Amino acid sequence: MAKNDVTVQGRSVRDLPKVSLHDHLDGGVRPGTIIELADEFGIAAPASDAAGLRRWFADQCGSGSLVEYLKTFALTTAVMQSEGALTRIAREFVEDLAADGVVYGEMRWAPEQHLTAGLSPEQAVRAVQRGIEEGVDAADAAGRSIRVGQLISGMRHTDHTLEMAKLAVAMRGEGVVGFDIAGPEDGFPASAHRAAFDYLAEQFFPVTVHAGEAAGLDSIRSALLDGRALRLGHGVRLAEDLLIVDRNGDDVQVQLGPVARWVRDREIALELSPSSNLQTGAIEAWGTGLGDHPFDLLYQLGFSVTVNVDNRTMSDTSLTKELSQLAATFDYTLDDLEAFQFNAAAAAFLPVEEREELVEIIAEGFDR
Predict the structure, then answer these.
(1) Cα–Cα 20 to 30 A to 333, which of 76, 184, 247, 305?
(2) CA of 138: how far to CAs of 30, 91, 142, 258, 318, in Å?
(3) Measured distance CA(86)–CA(363) in Å, rounded
(4) How far is residue 281's CA from residue 66's CA, in Å, rounded to a whole number?
(5) 3-state class percentages of the chain: helix first, strand second, coil last, to nearest 5
(6) Contact 141, 55 (CB under 8 A)
(7) Pick the catalytic residue: 213, 271, 322, 338?
(8) 281 φψ region: left (φ > 0), alpha (ψ -120 to 50), beta (else)
(9) What is the CATH classification number for the domain harbouring 21?
(10) What are the residues whose beta carbons fall under 8 Å from the beta carbon of 193, sequence distance 6 or more?
């Protein structure tokens, strides 16, 4: 059995069909690839071998600060400035998803961060799409079926968001399925990018917004009202809008605030990323261990929770690892793990007919 894989009710978690909604391309570059490309581009890497670079990422990303966590992306984006590098990294990214049992994934990335060597945004998107298609073909040849769409991210601390929104809409027929804003959350609300979100709404283009990670309820409120978010990137601090009014052993009575009730009642998916949430301090109000994560409380209250990796390289993780750790921590069964995949399938930025097909693929895979 592969590293970090466990069995739940006799089933290998790695072999279960999975849906990945929150997965950053520049956060999932193979350490060995970073070293090779850094050498090619004349960039000084902080380690000379893949194992050493993994340790460096682990040390840098365990500070408990999203700002410090984000600094590691300077290295990965530095080696992603050519068409060849983007295509290779996207191909390997898809191959890694498929090897992890992912049957549908959304790969988010910010083209504006990959133009320093002269690429146009359109060239960058097409280079990534070539890599996706090569990765899908490689997975198919290996007997694994996978589909992957691009999410174009605007960086919330820059003024290029409207330009990136127009790029996403223009490329919707070339592999782009949705839009996101990313980067430092605190102090950069979705409301600052209202023009981009207005444009996306006019074009009926689906949006997810990073919110409720480094900032709290105001960030989530802005994502919903200004961003018209159909999903919340992380959204873990939505738990700040839950008031425990009575606790009797395992029985907990919770009162939902208006934001939490809106999110739950409209089944707005939460793109929760447990390991990342621990690293960035997103759950520090509740504790520092996985057992302190409000994931289970949100799940038991009926929120549309999904499980994600955020950044495979920075968190040294996979969907298999995230699900395995959750199952061990909260005594989840196969039915629970299947429910998380159904939630993700329902929230995928796909036409309803294709979401229904995805649900069937998941159900068949879990029944196998």
Answers:
(1) 247
(2) 17, 9, 6, 47, 19
(3) 34
(4) 7
(5) 50, 20, 30
(6) no
(7) 213
(8) left
(9) 3.20.20.140
(10) 154, 156, 161, 162, 181, 226, 227
> Element (H or E) spanning 296, and its range?
helix 295-300
Whether 3 has a pLDDT exceeding 60, the answer reads no
Residue 160 is assigned to a structural domain of this protein: yes
Domain holding 287, by residue range, is 7-367
Question: Token pair 């070339």 is at which residue?
Answer: 174
CA nearest to 14, candidates 299, 327, 273, 360? 327
Q: Strand, coil or helix: what is 323?
A: helix
**Location of structure tokens 């301090």:** 281
353 given a catalytic annotation? no
User: Which contacts qualify for 199-206: CB closer than 8 Å, 24 or more apart?
Assistant: 199/162, 199/165, 199/166, 199/169, 200/165, 200/168, 200/169, 200/228, 201/228, 203/169, 205/165, 205/168, 205/169, 205/172, 205/178, 205/179, 206/177, 206/178, 206/179, 206/230, 206/349
Residue 103 phi/psi, 5-degree rounding, is: -105, -20
Distance CA 282, CA 299 (A): 18
Instruction: Give the confidence band of 1 by pLDDT, cuts at 50, 70, 90.
Output: very low
Q: Considering the domain boundaries, does residue 1 fall inside one?
A: no
Q: Which of 172, 233, 220, 221 is nearest to 199 (CA)?
A: 172
Reported as a single tens digit per residue, the pLDDT across 143-191 is 999 999 999 999 999 999 999 999 999 999 999 999 999 998 889 999 9
Number of domain units in the chain: 1
